[in-house]
Structures
1.
Amino acid sequence: MLALIPLFPFIGFIINALIGRRLSKATSGGLACLAMLVSFGVAVVAFWRLLGLPAEARVIDETLFTWIASGRFQAPLTFRLDPLAGLMCLVVTGIGFLIHVYSTAYMHEETDHEYARYFSYLNLFAAFMLVLVLGANLLVMFIGWEGVGLCSYLLIGYWFDKQSATDAGKKAFVVNRVGDMAFIVGMCLAFASFGTLDFRAIAAAVAALPPEVTWGVLSTITLLFFIGATGKSAQIPLYIWLPDAMEGPTPVSALIHAATMVTAGVYMIGRNAVLYSHAPLTMEVVAVIGVATALLAGTIGLAQNDIKRVLAYSTVSQLGYMFLAMGVGAFAAGIFHLYTHAFFKALMFLGSGAVIHALHGEQDMRKMGGLRRALPITYWTFLIGALAIAGVPGLSGFFSKDEILFRTFASGHSVLWVLGTATALLTAVYMFRLIYLTFHGKPRYEGAYEGAQEAHRAHDRAAHAQGTHNHGGGGVLHDAPMAMAIPLVLLAIGSVVAGYVGVPHALGGSNRIETFLEPSFSPPAHTAPAVAGTHAEPGVALSGEGAHAEADAHGATHADTALELTLMVTSVAIALMGIGIATLVWLKRPHVAAALAARVPWMHRLLLNKWYVDELYDATIVQPIKNSSTVGLWKGVDVGVIDGAVNGTGWLVRGSAAGLRLAQSGSVRIYAAAFFVGTVLVIAFYLVR
Amino acid sequence: MVTLDHYLILSALLFAIGTVGVFLRRNIITLLLSVEIMLNAVNLTFVAVGRYLGSVDGQIIVFFVMTVAAAEAAVGLALVIAIFRHGETLSPDAFTSLKW
Amino acid sequence: MLTDFQAIMPILIVTLSAIVTMVAEAFQPKQERAPLAGFGVIGLIGAAAASVLLWGYDKTGFGVVRADNFSLFVNLIVIAVGLLTILFSPQVIERERIPPGEYYALTLFAVVGMMLMAAATDLLLLFLALEVLSLAVYVLTGIRRAQFQSAEAAFKYFLLGAFSSAFFLYGVALTYAIVGSTRLEEIAATLAVSDQAPDGLVLVAMGLLAVGFAFKISAVPFHMWAPDAYQGAPTLVTGFMATGVKAAAFAAFLRVFLSSFHTLHDSWAPMLWLVAVATMILGTVVGVVQANAKRMLAYSSVAHAGYLLVGLIVGTRVGEAATLFYLAAYAVSTLGAFAVVAVLATEEHPHDRVQDFAGLWESRPGLAALMTVFLLSLGGFPPLAGFVGKWYIFSAAIDAGYVWLAIVGVLTSVISVFFYLRIVVMMYMSDERALVPTPAITRSAVAGLTLALVAVFYLGLLPTHAIELALTSVQGMF
């Protein structure tokens, strides 16, 4: 049953990959959507069955066959549905389905076989993502982990005739490989220490150990995994690939680079919650990196002019929040935010896609404005998304973000709380800046209209679905066609209501999602309360329940509620203040923005250029290697061996390779001499020792 | 008195001469001959050690090695003819179309 | 006497089929074409059957050959390599106008050498097996006499090969001087009793033997022949020697160093550690900048020699089994990849540059998919054969405390994905349509590719059986 969930998208991939070129667009697109829909259906049924079980026993294991088994090493190909995986499954299949539907319209201008190629990648991605989510041990998860990376790479570079797209694909790939390496080593180390790779078995083994307060093997393993997570989930220092990944088609950005794949790192930590809570040192690192990323990306988002880049930095920033939650031990809150974020961020990406689509590929917000009337559906849905992410009460983002900030404060990380709250302010500001620049004010797109069409063809093949002829004449803008509008509306509804599964106790709710997820974060033996009791040190509260138990123990429930309410009011005030600032600066007095930028030009430049991080990497890592290898390289270039064909290679490797390969001069006498030198070295090594 | 060590040193010297010949000489035929010298240096070791140990094994091994050397020479010379046809030269440095 | 012949039965069968192939070509009427490939296939299948029948009996023959499970396992690998090569060959032979009798007979003789190498328990016999194998492969490399590159590659390979055999033989001679015998078990016995620090001459002898093996497996710095020979040889021969020769050489390497010289593990392991690290790094790094697919795969095979060395250095039972499993996984993936390159070539166009793969997804989606699978397997993507092999070897290394070796291995295999993916990118994501019309593909080649594909998935998804087999085959070895 569980195996069917990834199986359907996989079948969709096989069909589209093998015979997709011979199918019409309607067939191949419909097939891909159908695969996702069926998969969603199966996921719902499985989830329903999971809910039918008593809370402690909510685990459905399904072993397909023994994958690798030798001696004490066992890695069965097992899928496991527990509350955490169930929630993720619904998000991936549900939102994935909506984005597939949206794509059928968005990608309509592609040729038939390109269209099939697109949907085959998309389906393959969904299959791997579901394997990642459902895998019951690290090795199965790793299949998905590598697979989604591959698909992401293929999809970022989907428009491969665009140089920036292939470059972005490469960058994403290089950065992700760095993370993956740490992940593999961590996996080997985990096996060496626990003798198993099964998540529950590891959790059980770790639960028996005391938390590791000094640096040790648990901290090393968790840190290695976290490095893997920073690559996949775009955290400092490996976040640089995500903004560039926006070169891919917009639905891809929505699905992979906002709603699902990038959250894999957060999910992985949630999966290993028990392991992480026994490594408080790593937890601190996770929390600090999380909040630093959130803040940094928030500031960068403030000055970007490309609509998708603003959203990309916003994604990085929100992922930072999730890691913050993980780092302070509020696993449920982090996953809760992951889940609500998937709705509103997918919504906003799809909304931006509708805008770009209507403007024939224009992504620069300075050339938009006043689109409110022309694109009402897009505007209103987008506005809901923005309100949700800003944390306006009543919408989903409010509940989840607030939960994270509260837990951060409650766990004693007041500095992190301040930074997190500052980020919340930034979030509200840049989101509404985006809204005002795009949808309000004077239309600025007419002047650039002809140019935009030109750019459309050369720069971005972002499709528009119906009635190309309508656009030719009077510049009449069309709102999203049905296939795009319906997902937008559904996601908007989701962005509003999704939060109501997690209404906090302080507001009279029961925080059902936290109670529901709780079993996934505790060791299988159900010793959670006891463990939570022993974890007195801040930041290691095992779970939401644990935190409450602690609070109860101190007899401070009232104070707790009061505190939570205070913090809540603070963050609402912050959100409204942010919206207010944005209104003031970009709606009421647009000149203020320019004046501000002119007043502190260095600040503006710094933000616009993303804190010069790319340049920093370039100057400290890329350039030195490049320069030192120029000597070796020119000769290579001269003989035409190194030409444009050398794709997918980092300068790092390429530079050193250029020198090394020159030793391979082609002269057999040189080879013999090298052989002889090698022999002498080998013998000398023996004799000297 | 000639001891085993003398034989071993002589064969080591011969082996070294052969080795150096392979990467210092600039004629393909000489390279082949250098390899032959190396093999025969080893043969000398075998014979000397066999004699020293008082067993015929060493000498029998030499017969095998000589057979192998003959086979190698046959293949080697055939290959030399093959590349000579293309390059019209016997300089090993002329054949560097495969590199890097 | 009967046991003696039983022990060499697989080898005998292949030898016989090689002779039959040779004779059949000599006596075939002018116009007729004897089914030469058929003899080879029959011989190899017979040898495989014989190997399976011998499984578990641990027969020894003539005191110098041992048909233990270890050598039988290696037999199965090299037989598979030989079979696949023969299946891919007819089309290529036709196109390149290679004399079929010589080609098949030499391939079979090379297989004989490989099997003998895995089974030999005497250093002299090992040397002879090495030469049987090498001489056959030298000739195969240069079999397209009309082609300059082929001749150059064969000459380089030959000269350096002969050079390295001389070193190996010198190692044998010195061992003989110390021990008074060339039998592996006597060497082991002699070294085991001398409990004091190993004497210098022993170390020199061991070093020379290691150098000889390192050459055959193309470990750095003894690898320099490999890229040139691999690039110049006919593509199928490249695939054959990249897999078969490496498997046989590794088998002998394992047997000699983990039986005779096992007591000296502490002396040779650090040296091979350095060699392995250098091999992994250089093979990967230089592979990245190659523009020729065959040359790139050659560097990739250098890198894979490094991963295989990790299993040898670890020296535990699991490490040995991991090496054997990896050899099998590597053999099918590499052979498959080379076969795709080989069947795509036409008379005018070798189809071996990376750009030649541009747009293959459009013209030959099936072949593009196969190539993708083989390359991803080589790059260690789960759940394909290469991933399981790597995982198994690296976890054996970490288990035995060789953490840094595993880290270098993981790092380089992460980098190596770049060059495998370059071809994938060319096939799927390239605007250029550099493609010259691709030839029709014979049914036997399709069968061979299918077999290789099935093997890659089988070893990737259901590796348990093969791992168990590898584990049992190393149990009684030493």
2.
Amino acid sequence: MTEQAFIDEVLPHQDKIYRLARNYLSDADSQDVVQETMVRLWQKRHELPGYRSIQALAIVIARNMCLDKVKAKSYQNSSLNNIAEPATMHTPASALETKDEAALAHSLISRLPEQQRIIVHLRDVEGLEYEEIAAVVKMNVNTIRVNLSRARKTLREAIIKQHNYAYNGS
Amino acid sequence: MHTTEVKILLEKYYEGATTLPEERQLEAYLLSPGADPQFAAEARLFGHLAKAKQETLPTAAAKEIEQRLQHTAPNPFYRSRQLWYYVGGIAAALLIFFTVAISFYRQPANTHFVAGTSYTRAEAEAAVLQTQQALAFVSAKWTQGTEPLKKLGTLQNTQDKMQNLGALDRNVKTINHSMTKASESLDELERLSKIKIVIN
């Protein structure tokens, strides 16, 4: 794969990788994961035309990196604190709002079991088809649907609880 | 979109049975100002997800990645991995070929394999000769052995003839017996005729 082809076909996936990583890690660590994933893909760019889906490859690499980082830093206990970190003072107001809303979505998704987390993210955030998700998680479509169903119901329950809590608190 | 239709779609959504266009349709409705308040939880959920979709890698981070890639050379191992696959495949094929060839040609000249045992040509020829002799011996003995059987055949013929003679003898006896009976009948007839004459 040429340098230009890499820029055209691989670099556009960096936003997807960033969004995926945000379900596992803090903003800074998510940026590191994107960078490391891109470097790894860049190093093996001559092999990339042989892969059926570069997107699936990129997501698998990024997901494994995220899980490694979570394991290394014991993120499990403190993930919510990191995800809900406040935006910087230099962030514009609209971006701040988007970031907070997005952080809430990541916060909700990050509480799901790992398989449900990646499936609901790939479907409801990235809008991938079931077959594309299957290429990443190595599951059959029916299992993916079952996991997705459970994840969506859990998210709804979480939203309802959160909503009630907001009302009670005000 | 009608409320009933939204409910059906949401039911499908929670069962993981909606298609992407249906999910986009739901999203458009739930994020619109006219969405029914009974779907507030779903509207909030779709709102969070919609914001998450808009999130992008910060520009500074993207630039940093581009700069890093410019200073990173492709990993020579990755670049040559495909070549190594080809070379490895060819090497393995050659290794198998030479192993078979060497094991075949390392056998002594004029050696033949019979049922997992090897013999030289001279040994094989001697074995064939001995086998021929043994078969000739067996054949001769077989011929000798069948000669008495021919006499047995003659004996059988004699027996058959004797049996035929016996049957003839029985027939003669039967005829003799019949003749005797006939003679006795004639004597009786003669006696009866004499009595009749006396009566007259």
3.
Amino acid sequence: MNAVLESCHTPEAPSGVHPAKQFTIVVAGNPNAGKTSLFNALTGLRQKVANYPGVTVESKTGEWSLEGRLRPACLIDLPGLYSLNPTSLDEQIARDVLLGRHPELADPDVTIVVVDATNLVRNLYLATQLIEEARPLVIALTMFDLVARSGLKINIRKLSAELGVPVVPVVAKQRVGLDELARAVLKVSGDHCAATFQDEVHEDPDPANRQSSLIRRYAMIERVVSETVDVRNDGRTKISERIDRVVTHRIFGPVILLLVMLFVFQAIFSWASLPMTLIDSVFAGLGDLARTYLPSSIFTDLLADGIIAGVGGVLAFLPQILLLFLFISLLEDSGYMARAAFLMDRLMRAAGLHGKAFVPLLSSFACAVPGIMATRTIEHPKDRITTIMIAPFMSCSARLPIYTLVIAALFSGKTVLGFISLGAVIILAMYLFGILTAILVALLMKRTVLKAPPTPFVMELPPYRLPDPRNVAHALLSRCSIFLRKAGTVILAMSILFWALAAFPRAENPHTGSPSEAASHQVQNSFAGRAGRLIEPVIAPLGFDWKIGVGLISSFAARETIISTLNIVYSVGDDSENKSSLVEAMRSARRPDGSRVWTPLTGLSLILFFLLACQCMSTVAIVRRETNSWRWPLFMVSYMLVLAYVVSLITYQGGHLLGFA
Amino acid sequence: MTLDMVPKNGLARVVAVESDDAHNLRLMEMGLVPGAAIRMVKTAPLGDPIQVCVRNYDLALRRAEAKSIVVSLDEEWSSSQPA
């Protein structure tokens, strides 16, 4: 987690030689000012993403080779900020790094302030604040290709003279101005810029007078801009505003949003399933290969069922993550994401959430893992954690196998109103109940554990821009590598642990029956089987017997695992495709008193439990990574477990009281 | 009147920003200082938030936040706003 503390360049100096402190440059600027594009253009693929220690704020560092220097400089991409008076954790950390106040990071040697040339006045607010800090500083004037098109003419030399710092126009996408920027950075290093406008702003340290110094600063910026920028407004409406006339239109806006989200949803729900099945079958084949060619032993079992299956389980997430982040980067970089938040804010506010929570939550219907990774667009930490905490209630695709199994076994052929299949009604009810629970839990959390004054919804609607494929590729690469390194390792470890729970202790006198009976015998006597019996008194009030208990325990690795576990405990062979024989086994299963184990009420109780409990170690692992602590994932597992238990209990016992079997 | 009351496409100028809490200071830092020209662009389909154009960029904010910005309607908003 503390990768940010190391310098970007791992020193390979021989021992005894103390490597000199690496030349450090920070890139700061307003959100949407083109900071990340510039950072990507300067560092290429030589970048690392980590978290600042102890917080969820992400830090990006990279290497930039400057001409005439032996070692590449360390470039730090700070979170976007609007001013040096932070209103969010992101901004606070950015400010601390900029002012050399961050306890773990050295004072930066040079600061590059990214200033959007098409939005000079507001961008210069932060820039002039930083210039007054009298640190070596260069302004990179981004979006310079759009200046002429916006009817502007900027006198760079005059602007630079007025501000007292070098101003370098750049177009990151076309790599224009990058060499000039490097020269300017080397030139100012060691220098301290002298703000010539300090008297004009007269920053008052007394917070009570902050308003008046703020007004003076804007007056000064307006003067500088009016003296250096020539505006030739041709009276045309901006292109973005014309696009917005359709995209945020009263009727077309919501319709377009629905279509966009349907498309994204379709992609992660069904297009991703093809590569996922492929990965599944490749790893199943690898497991079979291992079992065929290696001597039958516990190590072969570990390799085939623990490690190979675990790695396959991790990689199976990649298609969904890749697809979702492809769309999210495109939506984000094009400027549409801000419009989606604008359209949905009123609705999300009803649940105490931010408009930006809409896309992550909707994505969670396919899978909570990429959905939770997508909450990164929500700046305010408490809003973000609330969204993460309720994302698993969105009924994901991994619940569908268990819904369809229970429906096939207990509700098949039944209809509502004579023509609607009861199964379809149950699945729809599960989705709706999940959403309702999410809203209630979010409202409760915002009033208790995540209590915070209402976050203002102040959001820039950036102009529409064509996404840069290179930035999109960077975002995809970094998301996948974070998932594999930070969540994948935890998922792999847990899948080996769950394998061991079912594989140990070894059955003492091997069962002489068929292989499926031997497997059933092994599981029933394993730790998982014993735990199933141990928890039986606890889960009996929910209508579950110990065999379902074994299924519940194994499904804490991943929900769909319950089907293969039930296959094993009912001795119908470890073949998930073999659903009909499992359905038969479920229908004929009897309790010691001769009554059916699987009544419709048991089935309903079980699928509600599956809807509400956080039975997914991948979710746990990604929450651990995204919140940078074990506190939130543990809290999430416990409260969801309690909720699932209570709801299943009420369903089963209430159903009994009402006379249902 | 306050910013949330400006009609669609209406032009206004900021007169004052009420109270000095952190959120309002942030609105000012985003450019909504007394004297700044504002154009009401539109209201979101569900009636909230609103979109305004200030200092040549678009800003979305909730009606509740817009209430703390006192404005006066400005009929002669010059088109020569600095960028």
4.
Amino acid sequence: MVIYGVSILAACMIAGLVLGELLGQLIGVQANVGGVGIAMLLMILLSDKLRKAGKLKPLTERGILFWSSIYIPVVVAMAAKQNVLAAVEGGPAAILAGAGAVVVSFALVPVLSRIGPAPADAAGGADPSGEGDALGERDASGDGDASGDGQGRS
Amino acid sequence: MTGILDTLAEVLIRNGLVTAFAFVGLTVWISYFISGKLTKGRIHGSAIAILLGLVLAYVGGVTTGGTQGLADIEILAGVGLLGGAMIRDFAIIATAFGVSMDEIRRAGKGAVLSLFAGVIVSFIVGAAIAFVFGYTDPVSMTTLGAGAATYIVGPVTGTALGATSEVMALSVAAGLVKSMLVMTGTPFVARFIGLNNPRSALVYGGLMGTTSGVAGGLAATDPKLVPYGAMTATFYTGLGCLLGPSIIFVIIRALFG
């Protein structure tokens, strides 16, 4: 049933957030440390296990895939509730501090991406099966353009 | 006529979340229309939708004077629930479904390193800007540096160190600027920084750290990369809150105290 998928997702989130909260208390910071990240790891491990055991029915999957495909609209709503006014009114010090951090961090992405063993198969490993289905439709259009341009330049 | 409008407003307010679904759907539709017709698909529909969301949030802030963007307008309060941390995190976790564990294991070392590098670099940049603008005491420098990490690390660090409310407000603003620039800038720089595979997405998430920025930035770049970036980004704020008021403050105080 669809609700099983939604419920698995919810259980992963609650478990992850509780662990993140405890981790924060353990190291003494007033923040949830990686709760969502832990929940995502739980989701990956659990879905892998269930699939291998043949317990992941298509209807169950649908309960999860709906939420992963509603992700972009949720992000749009998130953008619409940001305190943009405060950011703009922060003045040059705030704008420069924020922008400077972004520029330097962007520049470090290619540097740090080289660390660790090389990807075994860049093309094969990149596309998780479940996700392609959920988001495939909107991928196809934008993706082709972006990668085409990128290759032209580099 | 006003009677009908009043009734409409009442229904919209009473069913806030449903109103938000309809409203966001319309926003996305308009954005994809603009993307297709006006930019010929060159600028991704979701990038335009996020930008449109930010513009609307600005309009909401100006008209209501509140801090929740569009969600402060009564009939659109549901946008705040739909775009709030609860639903956002629920959707982010759902994107992890079907992600390959191998990719994460392979990029492990780089991802962890990117978290530390991202936090430290942001503090350095923020503290340097603070110094240039005349905030030369270690507490203010550390607090603005913390804001350049994320808008949560800023006030947490500032509170721990006893920063002035002026500096705290600045640090939150710096974090907001960062989050918005990451959301809107990522699709444009992605090709130059090699952001097109899970490994660089994990590193990108760790370096940027702002969950909302990374969530929006990757959504507008390539939704397949969302789970990788989001996963590392969620550890960033915790790490920043850990390092900021402790090691980083001690170092800044030693250098400028």
